[in-house]
Amino acid sequence: MLGGVFLLAGVLKAVDPQSSAAAVRAYQLLPNSLATVVGWGLPFAEIALGLLLLAGIATRAVAAAAAILLVVFIAAVVSVAARGLSIDCGCFGGGGEVAPGQTAYGMELVRDAGLLLLAVWLVWQPRSRLALERFAGARTGAPQ
């Protein structure tokens, strides 16, 4: 689930990196030049995290990176809500300013908190039946 969400979010943003950069700028947390770099790079980081999670490669480390990224996402949404900004999070493409009352901060926070719980679970229990790590551990005699 976590890998699929990261992969989908990254792909939807990667098809329009200009919108992704605009969405990051809308949070007003980073200087514009840095927001542009983050906006262009974030989709590819999300794609990489999603693919690695789906394949079950370096699951604990990748899940920890995903958890850190989710904490940053949660903090960013809390920040814009607290500052009274009206933006679409841009979590699955698009993003940027929206009319007051068109925000969905509560749902975004619930979704991201649920994904954070999944990431923490994978840090704690990183091996699954289909993870490539499991098969590598079986060949090397490592405990599963």
Model description:
The two termini are 22 Å apart. 28% of the residues are buried. The protein is globular, with a radius of gyration of 17 Å. It has helices at residues 2-14, 17-26, 32-55, 59-82, 105-124, 132-140; strands spanning 87-88, 96-97. Strands 1-2 form a two-stranded antiparallel ribbon. It is built from 6 helices and 2 strands, in the order ααααββαα. Residues 138-142 have low confidence and may be disordered. It has 144 residues and is mostly helical. It has one domain (2-140). α4 (59-82) packs antiparallel against α5 (105-124). The chain is 69% helix and 3% strand.
How many distinct domains? 1
Oligomer: single chain
**Beta fraction of the residues?**
under 5%
Percent of residues in helices comes to 55-70%
Content-based structural category: mainly alpha
User: Could you give a short account of the major beta sheet?
Assistant: 2 strands, antiparallel
* Global shape: globular
Distinct helical segment count: 6
State the total count of DSSP E strands: 2
Supply Rg.
17 Å
- In the sheet with the most strands, the strands line up as 1-2
Task: Give the integer mean of the pLDDT values.
Answer: 89
Order of helices and strands: HHHHEEHH
Distance between the termini: 22 Å
